Amino acid sequence: MTHPSPAVTDNRKLSSRQFNLLVVGLLTVAVGQSFIFAILPPLGREVNLSVVQINFMIACSALVFSVASPSWGRLSDRVGRKPVIVAGLAGYALGNLIFAFAFEVALAGWVTGTGLFASLLIVRCMQSVMMSGTNPGSTAYTADHSAPQHRTRALARLGTASSVGMIIGPILAGALAGLGLLFPLYCATALAAIAAFVVWRYLPASISLASHGKTRRKLSVFDHRLRLYLFCSFGGFTGFAGIQQTLAFRIQDMLHLSGAETAQYTGLALMITALCTLAMQLTVAQRFQGPPLTLIRGGVLFLMAGPMLIAVPGSFPLVLLGMACLGTGLGLAVPAIAAAASLAVDPEEQGGAAGLITACPAAGFVIGPIVCGSLYEFDPTFSAIGAAVILLAVAITAFKPAG
After folding, report:
1. Does residue 109 lie in a domain region?
2. pTM of whole model > 0.85?
3. Is 403 or 85 the better-scoring residue by pLDDT?
4. Is the distance from CB of 66 to CB of 360 less than 8 angstroms?
């Protein structure tokens, strides 16, 4: 059952100003995160971190993000969306600056070994606590200002911000990495700080549902209205994260590249993924009029095909084709999952639902890198096969008859 938001009428949509400001925030975070994905593997090797340590750092920070996101979503139900969005951007900027400085210290040889790994892990996890507010705040803000019949389209439009960021980010990361592997991190810090100020200064505040005397309950991950969508999101991103977080190692080892070259080749692969995601969001998700579950099912089939292609040894073109399939699947499934979850709950639960949906990709980035990273240590092909098995389970679940 769907419910119109009490703050808006059924025919209202996000204004251009609201949409553009939300895009600024999400685009900034996406660019910064794509920098991390492209440069952290070669940067970690520069300071003698192992594949397992790098993936463990990513997994732990993702776990923190996953745990914190629902709390930010519920907080946005009480205090409004804007403060949560701004806090996430400001926290991301500060955390990124400290993270870059920690690598500066490591490259200078002042901290090494276990002390370095522990320091980087703590900083990254603290950053994740704060940055996890931006996505659920933005998603709930969009739900507040879109009618049920326009929800999939509105969230698909919002998702294009992250896709564009993942397209721009790898290009910039590859170019900026030529000036030093840390230079992209400092650029991401500056962008996030600017975005936090712009959103704080110009985004209109949303109306807190607390002012309407609504009673809110804490949504559970086992809520029958949400569990299918939560599982599809978690499982889909588990498989995707397993591929993405071993991609740079696979490319570097397969093509025998230097650190900077690895960042550039990995950036190309991630850019193709993001381009396909964006194409699906623009051409299919924004125009689709049927039930969101149909898009979810189509998306998970493409996701499953991706690692099957990447598992073929020794072929960089097949790696690129596999990443294209992954991007296509994300472009179909992600906005449909967000819309389906939003439509499944009451207006006063939008923040809580957005927080849970936002937590699922991060939770996937906990399990995926650990499972596929461990498999990679045995054989590079095993990591892709493991991801394919995970995504097969998601596809089977998504195609089960409703009810």
Report:
1. yes
2. no
3. 85
4. yes
Q: What is the pLDDT of residues 194-252, one digit of tens each?
A: 999 999 999 887 754 544 445 456 777 777 888 889 999 999 999 998 898 788 888 88
Task: For residue 112, give the amino acid letter.
Answer: T
> What residues make up the domain containing 347?
16-203+221-398
Give residue for tokens 């009029």. 289
The pair of structure tokens assigned to 44 is 């970690």
Q: Classify residue 324: in a domain, yes or no.
A: yes
Query: 354 Cβ partners below 8 Å, 6+ apart?
Result: 73, 76, 135, 136, 137, 139, 140, 143, 338, 341, 342
Averaged pLDDT, 8-27:
75
CA torsion sign for 145, 146, 152, 158 is: negative
Q: CA end-to-end span of the chain, whole Å?
A: 15
Say how many domains are in the chain: 1
Contact between 306 and 322 under an 8 Å Cβ cutoff? The reply is yes
Which residues lie closer than 8 Å to 26 by C-beta, 6 or more apart? Answer: 134, 135, 138, 158, 161, 162, 165
Neighbour-count burial of 307, counting CB atoms closer than 10 A to its CB (0-12 exposed, 13-18 middle, 19+ buried):
buried
Is the pLDDT reported for residue 91 higher than 90? yes
Tokens of 280: 């699906």
Position of tokens 């923040």? 351
pLDDT average, residue stretch 288-294: 82
